[in-house]
Structure formats: structure tokens, C-alpha cells
Amino acid sequence: MSSGSDGSAVKAAQVLLNTHGHGLAVDGDFGPGTDAATRDFQDAEGLSVDGVIGPNTWRALVSDGGSGGSDEKLTHSQAASMFTSAGIAWSSSGNCSDRYTRTCTSFDQLRRTSAEGVIALKRASGCSVHITGGTETGHASGTYSHWNGYKIDFAPYSCVSSYITGTFTYLGQRSDGAALYRAGTGDVYAREGSHWDATYHG
Length: 202
Known about the structure:
single chain, alpha+beta, Muramoyl-pentapeptide Carboxypeptidase, domain 1
């Protein structure tokens, strides 16, 4: 998105720009002020200064400044601290965090990009986010899997569900019938039976 864009995605960007020290009105209008703030932010982060909020600028906006880059794997306690600081709750049916037990909710080996993606969703939507699944065993396998740190499950609260379905691009249904939505960052949200399944590609 860039100058002239409008809508919920612009509001999300304005909220994130404000968390980095800009005092924009969160009105969903990508006007001169938002353009200038975007260029200032890009310059400060060493990004291409083009006023366009693409994947690289978006990732920089949601970054909490941790070292190691998007492929950095977190310990459970590191991720839990990030989520606690952002006001994100989590639970497990087994009240545990061992990634080798399927009834636990573990963040061990979660990619930093995935943690930042959930935090960005909470900040941009202003909704409560409650995580119900992380990197523990028992999920489907594959490269972009829970086990490999790319996926997080969270409760389908009405606020966050409305934000996803109203802001992101509807992609159709997956082979299992789950409705798919893609964010501007390329992250994909699947509405599974009891939760949202989010994939943060990074």
C-alpha cells in the first residue's frame, strides 16, 4: 500500500507507525502525513525509501528489535515473554508447555517472525488474541508446520475473526473446507473448526 490507499490495512499501518514514534491520526487514509512517516521509518531502518508499505517495511514495523532475524528460533520462555508484554494470553488443554506432548501448548522453537506476526495482528486489530496451539507435536507435518515454528493457532473470538475476514483477502476454501485469508504480508489465516490456524511465512 502507498499514497492514495485507504481502508483497514492503512489503519493497521498507522497504528504500527505510531508505536515507532509517529503521531498519525488513525483514519485509514494514506495521505501526505502517512507517506512522510513511512519514508522516515524506512530511512531509519535502512530500507528502500519509496513510501510503499510492502512486506519488508511491514516486517520492520512489527519487529520488536530482537536479534537473529526472521529465522531466529525462540525458547518457550522468550516467546511467552513477548506475548505477555503484548497482552496476548495462551492456554493448553493439558496445562503444560512440553512440545513433545500433544495436549500442551509450547512455543519452543517458534520462529521470531511467527511471534511478531501474532503481536502485529493484536496491535493492528485492537482485539484480544488467545493462543491455543504452538509448536507442540500432534499437528499436520510439512515445511510450513507448527513443529517447524511457522504456525500458531488462536481462538476465534468475534473481534479478531471480524478483523481477519474484513481486512484480509479471501482466497477461497482449502481442500478440507477451511476458509483462507491472506494478509498484505503474505501470512495466511485458515478458519479451522475450533480455531484460526495462522501461517507466518516470513
